[in-house]
Design brief:
Blueprint: H1 7-16, H2 26-49, H3 59-65, H4 67-81, H5 85-88, H6 91-94, H7 104-110, H8 127-156, H9 160-178, H10 186-196, H11 198-202, H12 210-228
Helix pairs in contact: 2-3, 2-8, 2-9, 4-9, 7-8, 8-9, 8-10, 8-12, 9-12, 10-12
Length: about 230
């Protein structure tokens, strides 16, 4: 029996993993995956301009140019997380994977407001501010994306060796989408995830079920082996 059929324990596992308390299905897990991925795509479209001028950004053109990479990433998510066709269509609900106008306010949200809001809101549109928000947003949203993919893989009971290999491929593609210059790399994202999210799941006083902790530990070990070496 998969974790998705063990609602009570799975509910607690995802609560401990930092997800909101709500009925958890493949669709809700997919939303957790595709939301930060939308941030990754938007940041990538901005970074791809090289100017950090929002008027130069076209998400549609970026997605068209990187279509093969996005398709490969989505296929990897399907493999790792065990999502079926209906669940994968959840990605279309957000509107992040089609053309739209990028605004500084989006980047402020994706970057969790770390840069702060200038006295004059127009200051958010300045290229140095846009660039800094993109850097922070890439770090944050890639880490959230990795956490969501691992959580869904644990929930689907995907074999850690097979799942971790798919996740490394997915994460490598996502990092390249966010910044094709190599400014952010999978090993860096993994190590950030390990300190930002894993302790909350594995801490001794955590109420997470033991099978959930075991799943996260197994994925951590496999990802460390693949990304950092034995």
């Amino acid at each position: 029996m998969g974790l998705l059929n063990q609602f009570g324990d799975h509910h607690e596992l995802l609560r401990q993993a930092g997800h909101p308390l709500q009925p958890l299905t493949g669709t809700s897990l997919a939303r957790g995956v595709f939301a930060p991925l939308g941030g990754v795509v938007e940041v990538g479209a901005v970074n791809a301009t090289g100017t950090y001028v929002l008027a130069d950004v076209s998400v549609g053109e970026f997605l068209a140019r990187r279509h093969a990479d996005v398709a490969r990433l989505m296929d990897g998510v399907r493999q790792a997380c065990g999502f079926d066709d209906a669940v994968m269509r959840t990605a279309d609900e957000f509107g992040w994977f089609r053309d739209y106008k990028v605004e500084a306010a989006h980047l402020l949200l994706w970057s969790a407001g770390v840069t702060g809001v200038p006295d004059s809101i127009e200051g958010l549109d300045e290229s140095p501010v846009i660039r800094r928000m993109c850097r922070m947003a890439a770090d944050l949203q890639l880490t959230e994306f990795l956490h969501a993919v691992i959580t869904a893989a644990v929930a689907a009971m995907t074999d850690p060796r097979r799942g971790a290999a798919a996740i490394v491929d997915v994460l490598t593609t996502a990092c390249d989408l966010a910044d094709a210059t190599g400014g952010v790399v999978p090993a860096q994202v993994y190590r950030t995830w390990r300190v930002a999210h894993l302790p909350g799941v594995l801490r001794p006083q955590s109420d997470a079920p033991e099978y959930g902790k075991a799943g996260f530990r197994a994925y951590d070990a496999e990802l460390e082996r693949l990304l950092l070496g034995d």
